[in-house]
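Exam revision sheet. Question 4 asks you to relate a sequence to its structure. Input first:
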Amino acid sequence: MIRAEYLELRFGISYWMQAAQTVLALLGVLAILAAPANWKWKLVSVLLLAISAVWVHFRSVHSGRSGTIRLFNDGTALLTIASKAPVNAVQGPNGWVSRWFSILTLREADSGRKHHCVVCASDNHPDEYRRLLKFLRMHSSPADVQGMIR
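Answer key, structure tokens:
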């Protein structure tokens, strides 16, 4: 049995997450229009919702928050953000795990800058994502996790 020394993962907002943001914004518009309020309040509310939806879309998609993570057995990582040089990082204690996506907290080793990386199952190989889930849930090394799932 061959055990990988690291996990290679892509992170960033996937297409289905972008679509979910759009659907939620449209549901918000419908809720505002169905509310028993004056048309002026409805207009202001729809405009504020539109501005916030555009801001969230711009921030999540166009701010360069995508790239790759090479997560090693000891909790260290090599973080490569789009069009930048790779940076050494350490996995933080806080993260969030679900079946469809996970959020990893990584802290740069040199500057201490914190990164919250969204890792989507649909953007990664199923075995790599499964190993990540086991690693994050059980707080064990990826090498141990590889042995558990095979």
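Marking note for examiners. The mean pLDDT is 79.
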